[in-house]
Structures are given as C-alpha cells and as structure tokens.
Amino acid sequence: MAETVTSFQGITAIVGDIVEIDVAAARRMGLMPRNRELALIEQDGRPFSLAQVVRLAHDSASLQVFAGTQGLSSRAGIRFLGEMLRAIYSENIYGRVFDGAGRPVDGGPRLADDRRIAIAGPTVNPMSRILASRMIRTDIPMIDVFNCLVESQKIPIFSVPGEPYNALLARIGIQADADVVVFAGLGLIFDDFHTFRQAFEDAGVLSRTVMFANLASDPVVERTLIPDLALAVAERLAVEEGKRVLVLMSDMTAFADALKEIGIAMEHIPSNRGYMGDLYSQLARRYEKACDFRGAGSVTILSATTMPGNDVTHPVPDNTGYITEGQFYLHDGMLDPFGSLSRLKQHVIGKQTREDHGALMNAMIRYYAEGVEAEQKQAMAFELSDRDRRLMRFAAAFRERFMRLDVRQPLEAALDACWALLAECFTPDEVVIKQSLKETYWPEHADTRPQQELPESS
Asked: Is 67 or 145 the better-scoring residue by pLDDT?
C-alpha cells in the first residue's frame, strides 16, 4: 500500500458521515487525491477511521468516513493511502466473515498477506457472455417447478418487513446446487446475521460459503460497499476457478436507503421520494454482474428487496423490476405463484427437465387459479358446483404440498406430486394436458371414475 508519509489538515466541513476537504491545501503538499482512493483519518496522533474519496471538484473533495464522524474534529489529519478499496481473494476466504471494509470480523486468522483484488469494476462485455441455459436446482417446488432459477440470472424476492425472506434465502443457499455461495448482508440485525451463519454451519455448507456482513449498528457507508466486495469475489471465483457462484443479497432496500442518506449529506438533489436520480444505474451496476462466462463459471444473483407498505411502485422495487429477469413474490409466508415470474425459465424447462414439465406447470397454475376463484365464490355465499368443491380441494392441497416454505422436494419428485394431486381431484379426461403425457405420467392407481362419483371433501 503506497501510503503517503505526511498527513495534512484540510477539513472544511463535516456533514453526516461525509467530510469536505480543501483540495488546494492537499496540492500544496504535493498530494493529488483520486476518485475512490482510500484515506486514513488521524486524530490526536491515533488512527480514527478509514475514508474513501467519493467526489472530486476543482477546489474541494468529499470523503465518506467508514466509522462515522461522531467525535471527529475539523483539525484531524488526513493521510491518503494511494489505492482503492480491495477485497481479499484467496483459498482462505471460505467459511470467513468480512465487514464492509473487507476486513475479517469472525475472530479467525489474519489475512493481511493474502491476495487482494479491485472491486466495483466494469460489467462483462456481452461478447464474453453465453446465453443462460443451465438450471440451478433448489429443491423448493415453487421455484424449481413453477419459476426455475437459471444460472447467470438476476432475480429479486419482493416482500415486506416481517416476512421470512431471510429464512428463504438461507434455505436456497443451503440447498442450491451451486459450487460457492457468496452472502452479502446489508443492514441486518444481529439475530438475522447469526441465523444465516448458524444455518450454513448446521447444514455443513459453511466451507463453500463466503460471507460479507454489514449490521444495522455498523457504519452506513460500509453498507454501500458490501455488494461490490461480494460481487468482486464472486466474479473472480467464476472466471479464475470456473465456479458456479450463487450470490445472496439481503436487503437491497437497505442498500438504496444508505445511498439516499449519503446523497442527502452530499447535498445531491433528490428525485423520487428522496432517492437520488442515479438509483437505477446504482442498482444496475450491481445486478449486471450476473453472467455466464464463456469458457468459465457463472455468477447468479438472488436478492431480497423489501417493499415499504407493500408498495411495488416504491422506487427501489420499481427500478429493480426493470433491471432483473423476473421476481419472486413472498406474501403470507408463501411464494405467490401469480406475482412470481422467471423470464429465463423457458431456456431450461423441457430441455434440462422432463418433457412434461412445461405442460404440467401451466395446468397446475390454471387449476389453482380456478380454485382461488371458487374460494371467493364460497366467501360470497354463492352456490357451489361439484367442480367448484373439487377445485377448492385442489387449491388447499396445492398450498399445503407446494407453497409452504418448509416443503423440500427434488424436481422429479415434485413433478410426480403434481400428477398425483391432479389425479386426486380430477379424472384424466378433465385435465387439459397433451394425451401422450397423460398416458406416460398419470398415476397408475389413480381413481378414474366420473366426476359425479368422486367423494366430496369434508
């Protein structure tokens, strides 16, 4: 690290976690600060905090102070370090936890001499990408059967505070058939962070996991750096080691809120609901790191995005929806099949999965939708037909067997369970699926009596 020998005193203002410095004073001492360069702030002869240059003007510069500015004096010294923030990248990072400055915080061995890599680099040239065509199995039926997760996909989980989206992310990280899981926690309370780490450890997958965590009590500035650190490591694992990397990020709304807070401190003009005008590009810079590299591995991004007030038009989910390739909706502790969408699932359904996958998926959703309509008719005291009652039975069983988050089934077993449920509620002639598929996959011992002879649900 090319640290400058001398420090200078040039702080002209302190606003939030931002300090303004006099660039002319730095130049008089032969110092030329660069954008995104790291600096060490010293006070009373002792290190106070790391900082990063975030804005350069002709006669002033703005620095983000990692540890916050509480107790910082305008007489503090600034020492530029001559390099950008870098992430540790070596075989020793597996099972480790890093903070928003890239430092190990789990009490494990020091990694000061390990290789470091630049973060926040450009996205991959489209000519170096290949079309997404490989499925990531999660053993969660509502994903594998109805909205497949595809390698190199970027997809958020839209939810609201209080929903178990962190528990769902942890399950996916444990069960997904990825080589490496890189976790990025943004503004987590300690209990949520501990739950993630304990879940990975109990499942025996911590050895293939790298964790970056910014807790709610940690500096807001570091929250904006966590995605860059995690994605830089994921990209190197994919390119240099050919790994299939799954990146889990929670919660991207906390990341956007941190950008808003810093933007206000820097007196940027806000756009929609207080967020800065570059919110879309800030989110896109991170999500576009998802890539299937030609001749190498892949980076897949799955994030949690909370919607304040369950408002999908809120700037964060609204902008996210334009960037990503679909979304999962988590409502009432279940993945909603109506709002969820994976725009890349057609690249794997019927190609890497069974021939009946596509037709079966469509039929199940269609009958579930009709079952929900029948439930609404019952709630309004309409007279129900025998078919309505069987559709309601189907909808109740569908929620219990597929939509619950604790259900775990391999894809093939889940497809067989779909056929079994159809056979429980309908006769083969009632199910609108290609006849050759019904002849092949319809359960052998299913009841094929006419619908009027089927017993009603109690």
From this structure: 145
